[in-house]
Amino acid sequence: MGDPITEYMDVWTSAQVPKKTNGGRGRSSNGNGQGIYGIKKLRELILELAVRGRLVPQDPRDEPAGVLLEKIAEEKKRLVKEGKIKRQKALPEIGEEEKSVDIPSGWSYTRLGSLINLVSGQHLKPQEYSENKEKDMVPYLTGPAEFGDKSPCPTRYTFEKRAIALKGNILLTCKGSGVGKVNIAQMETAISRQLMAIQPLIVDQEYVLLLVQSLNSILRERIVGIAIPGISREDVTEAIVKISPLPEQHRIVAKVDELMALCDQLEQQQIDNNDTHQTLVETLLTALTSAADPKEFADTWQRIADHFDILFTTEQSIDQLKQTILQLAVMGKLVPQDPNDLPAPQAGKFFVYALECEDKSIYVGQTKDVLKRWKEHATGKGADWTRQHPPVRLVHWEEYSSREEASKREKELKTGFGRKWLKRELAAGRTRQAGEPAGVLLKKIAEEKKRLVKEGKIKKQKALPEIGDDEKPFELPGGWNWCRLDDLALNSEAGWSPKCKSLPRQGNDWGVLKVSAVSWGHFKPDENKALPSHLKPKPEYEVMPGDFLISRANTSELVARAVVVPSDAPKHLMLSDKTIRFVFSSLVNAEFICLYNSSQFSREYYSKVAGGTSSSMKNVSREQIRSLLVALPPRIEQNHIVSKVFELLAICDVLKMGLYENQTTQIQLADAIVEKAVKVQ
Questions:
Q1: Is residue 386 a contact partner of residue 355, using CB atoms and an 8 Å limit?
Q2: Helix 635-679 and helix 37-51: axis angle, to 10°?
Q3: Which of 253, 267, 612, 665 is least enclosed by beta carbons within 10 angstroms?
Q4: Parallel, antiparallel, or unpaired: how do β-strands 138-141 and 189-191 relate?
């Protein structure tokens, strides 16, 4: 096997995982949220080759490590005699079966304790340290939380010097969740019982640091305790290491520093490449959502489509694509108006129609067959004006019983007054387009709510404020209307949260849904708590297919996330008081509202209005949810949008699965290379 460090450079730089990971030295993660796994494994390989004597060539002129060990033993005796260190308990002999691999000539197997003096930390009482540093005080470190990125960052100081790490000593975490983490003392430092100070004797301290880092997995295997996990002094002193001659130690340290610097460069280069890639993705997707007209939209989309295979190669870029799909959907830019929704030709019927063109101009005409005439205009065969100003959608049509009436109305709409009327009605969403416009839907829903209130089936809700122009984040397509979420709902209510068992229900027993059942984009009925047998269920809170469920309390990222209960949802699951149920009119597609609730516009609204003192728990009121501004399309277009979004999101999921499979292959390859490299004798 050749040099694995340089031979497989493409593997080290391409193996990434969609989360942050930490290597032995350096960050090994980037701004993309991608952990540079290959660089992490390269660092591990360098360390492993270093402590096995395979990183630098041996020099037969070097004094053997056995002689060095004798000198260290003599030095320890002297220090003990002078009272500078305590006498160490005798270390057990190393059996032949414990010598896992062959070592180079001149090297020796030994216990770590034979190379060092080990100082155990001691706990100080609160009155024995201070956050304010005074003269003659030394830093007091209590654990790895104060290690910092490169060197310790003390926050406490003390006069007590019962357990001291000297400048240059290796700080090893021996208790708590960070067992095995290391750092270097930058000055004389008091240490707590969570830490030990490793003081190398004669040997190169940087070389000992490499040995300790290589023991990380072994030390962590020896952890005992649950409440406060930890390792003992013996776990450290009796750990078996391989030691080289002192001159070779210096060469190994220099080579490791050189190669780790190379890792840093590779890592930074990968981070820069990923950051540039991410900026490009963000720029193109932003240009897509902010396109001023259909031509600009088409041009931007073509640029994305031409480079699709190199743009969407990370989990974050695919997630951004999914969010862009949502944003385009709720802005009316994802699906075209369906011409098949236009009225069919009928004997004795004549139609006046209006087309919106790419430059926002309006073309008015009259015909007996709206669909046929639309297709003629769309293909450049309709009129001189639409050949020069391509139409993008039919924004209005009217039906008449004679050609004379239709011609008269056409002339009226072509006047200045008629065009002003048309633009006003178009802006208000009152024009008649393919399918019934949203304005008509809203009137029908309002009438339905009045009827249900009159019949005593629902309660009259408090009126919400009028929608101001400053609230509207974008210009609506023709036939769409701005409304509040509550304008679409027949009823809304919070649930019931009795004291339940911590376990989920069994079989078809009654249970109360947890907030996590509605937080992740799809309904998760298994996220429930069993209702105690001594409590009677409240069937009025049972969730039903088609219910729109939204959380009112959660983290800042998850608060006000929502789902629509599917048709095959299990029975006997009740709403909790941290979740609100909206029942929408049948004239509205609840899945479209759910998509809108997940869009950037809705998330920005909830972020602005959510209460709570910390990001760990935010809350929104039912009133705030009712007040959410919604861009409502015609019902037929709602259905088209939902179908198209589901189709495109499924493609994104396939892309992400392919990404995971590729990442898994790269990770397995990196692991295999390291395993093979360290096994070569």
A1: yes
A2: 10
A3: 665
A4: parallel
* Rounded Cα–Cα distance for residues 442 and 450 (Å): 12
Q: Is the dihedral of CA 571, 572, 576, 580 positive or negative?
A: positive
CA angle 446, 452, 458 (to 5 degrees): 105
Phi, then psi, of 50 in degrees rounded to 5:
-65, -45
Instruction: Please list, in sequence order, all residues whose beta carbon lies within 8 angstroms of the beta carbon of residue 192, skipping any fewer than 6 positions away.
Output: 121, 122, 123, 124, 140, 141, 142, 143, 163
Strand arrangement of the beta sheet that strand 182-184 belongs to: 116-120, 195-200, 170-173, 182-184
What span, in angstroms and rounded, lies between the C-alpha atoms of 405 and 366? 10
Q: What pLDDT band is residue 341 in, cutting at 50, 70 and 90?
A: low
Q: What is the pLDDT of residues 76-120, one digit of tens each?
A: 999 999 999 999 889 999 999 999 888 999 999 999 999 999 999
Residue 470 has pLDDT above 50, yes or no: yes
Q: Classify each residue of 504-526 as buried b or exposed e, where b means 16 or more C-beta atoms within 10 Å of its C-beta.
A: ebeeeebbbbbbebbbeeebebe
Average pLDDT, whole number, for the chain?
89
Structure token pair of residue 208: 């000992």
Q: Please give the angle made by the CA atoms of 594, 596 and 597, to the nearest 5 degrees.
A: 65
What single-letter DSSP state applies at residue 546? T
**CA–CA dist 141, 196 (Å, integer):** 11
Q: Residue written as tokens 């597609």?
A: 589
Residue-wise pLDDT for 499-533, tens only, equals 998 899 999 999 999 999 999 999 999 999 999 99
| Amino acid found at 660 | Y
Which residues contact residue 543 at a Cβ distance below 8 angstroms, ignoring those fewer than 6 apart? 513, 549, 565, 569, 573, 574, 575, 581
Q: Which two tokens stand for residue 616?
A: 């760990």
Using CA atoms of 323, 326, 332, 335 in order, give the dihedral in degrees to the nearest 10.
110
Residue 397 has a pLDDT of 87
Token reading at 547: 């219910």
Q: How confident is the model at residue 541 (pLDDT cuts 50, 70, 90)?
A: very high
Q: Tell me the pLDDT tens digit for each residue of 548-574.
A: 999 999 999 999 999 999 999 999 999
Beta bridge partners of 582: 492, 548
Give the global pTM.
Answer: 0.71
pLDDT of res. 675 = 81
Could you give the angle at which helices 590-597 and 600-609 cross, rounded to 10 degrees?
60
Rounded Cα gap, residues 218 and 214, in angstroms: 8
pLDDT, residue 25, reads 43
With 0-12 / 13-18 / 19 or more C-beta atoms within 10 angstroms meaning exposed / middle / buried, residue 68 is buried
Q: How many alpha carbons fall within 13 Å on the CB side of residue 140?
A: 25
Tokens representing 230 are: 């930890």
Note the pLDDT of residue 1.
55
Beta-strand pair 391-400/138-141: unpaired
The residue-averaged pLDDT of 251-272 equals 91
- Report the distance separating Cα 270 and Cα 267, nearest Å: 5
State how far the Cα of 99 lies from the Cα of 680, in Å rounded to an integer: 16
DSSP-derived secondary structure for 84-151: SSPPPPPPPPPPGGG--S---TT-EEEEGGGTEEEEE-----GGGEESS--TT-EEEE-SGGGS-SSS
- Residue identified by tokens 């027949």 is 490
Please tell me the number of Cα atoms within 13 Å of 45 on its side-chain side.
28
Which tokens belong to 328? Answer: 């385009």
pLDDT of residue 219 exceeding 70, the answer is yes
**CB of 373 closer than 8 Å to CB of 382:** yes
